[in-house]
Design goal:
Shape: elongated
Organism: Actinomadura livida
Radius of gyration: 30 Å
Number of strands: 0
Protein name: Type II secretion system F family protein
Order of helices and strands: HHHHHHHHHHHH
InterPro entries: T2SS_GspF_dom, T2SS_GspF_sf
Strand content: under 5%
Pfam families: T2SSF
Membrane topology: Multi-pass membrane protein
């Protein structure tokens, strides 16, 4: 039985058809994978432009961890429009640069200490942004209470009143209220949406306002009168907080100025006597002196921060 030989054009046609089928299959697989990534990304509330690339995949992997979710929540609360992966990459690069620079001027152990300090500095910056954004939101609470009071007095339901407040108020109150309004549009109960708002920006003032809204929604009562009273009280508290912050600001600035003068003094010594810091930091006595000086500076920051933290 002899084998059947096919003409060359038929063989080429079969190869082309097979190649076309393989390309179509690979393309269909890639399209399906891209659709899956888009669905996952939309569930994480990111845009289509952010759904591709190595940094996006790294960001998704980091967000799956507990520390990554915590950092992402803190970045969102601080109002920083930055990915978790980008933030960690910036912190890593800065730490490497600190190790290189400090390692040239001082002993290598201080370069590692500088890298650790960079990490704390980045996290401290995020925390300061959180506190500043929370303070800005608290400063807008009297106006928010008045807007809700006027909308409720006009006969509008709480959902519509929140939407009106989101449109009228500037950020950060406007942005946070828009998120709350979006949650209400998706069917989330008013109580849960307001509690989520309180968890994003925790403060006693906002807690009182949310409790008033929740209790009034459940048990009834004169919500308009309560909101107007809260608006007046919050305005007085805002003025008191501003006065306290102004009085205590001098001590905080003085403490930072002393620390910066100490660092500038070390840099000047190294300029006057090149290599002096490296020689000093390479000996146990010098390391002990620098460690004690740094510890005292950090302790002074913590003590002054504790003394100037006055609850109003």
């Amino acid at each position: 039985m002899s084998a059947v030989s096919l003409p060359l054009p038929v063989i080429l046609l079969i190869l082309v058809a097979t190649l076309a089928l393989a390309v179509w299959g690979v393309g269909d697989l890639v399209t399906g994978w891209a659709q899956r990534n888009r669905l996952v990304a939309r569930s994480a509330l990111v845009s289509d432009q952010e759904m591709t690339g190595l940094m996006w995949r790294l960001d998704v992997a980091i967000r799956r961890t507990s520390a990554g979710r915590t950092l992402a929540r803190r970045l969102a609360a601080s109002g920083m429009r930055i990915r978790v992966s980008t933030f960690l990459a910036m912190m890593t690069v800065t730490a490497v640069v600190a190790i290189f620079l400090i390692g040239r001027w001082m002993a290598p152990v201080f370069g590692i200490a500088a890298a650790v300090g960079v990490g704390f500095a980045f996290l401290h910056y995020v925390r300061r942004r959180e506190e500043r954004r929370r303070e800005e939101f608290i400063a807008q609470l009297p106006e928010l209470a008045r807007v809700l009071s006027n909308a409720t007095h006009a006969g509008l339901v709480m959902r519509t009143a929140i939407e009106i407040a989101a449109d009228e108020l500037a950020d950060p109150a406007g942005e946070e209220l828009r998120r709350t309004a979006d949650a209400l549009r998706l069917g989330q109960p008013v109580d849960d949406a307001l509690r989520d708002l309180g968890e994003r920006l925790p403060s006693r003032e906002l807690g009182v306002l949310i409790s008033t809204l929740v209790v009034s929604a459940r048990a009834g009562g004169s919500l308009v009168t309560a909101l107007r009273t809260i608006a007046t009280t919050l305005e007085e508290r805002k003025e008191i907080r501003r006065e306290v912050k102004t009085i205590m600001g001098e001590a905080v600035v003085t403490n930072w100025a002393i620390g910066l003068l100490g660092i500038a003094g070390l840099a000047m010594v190294n300029v006057i006597m090149p290599g002096a810091l490296r020689v000093m930091s390479g000996k146990p006595a010098g390391q002990l002196i620098l460690a004690v000086a740094g510890g005292l500076f950090i302790a002074s920051l913590l003590i002054i921060r504790r003394m100037t933290r006055i609850d109003v």
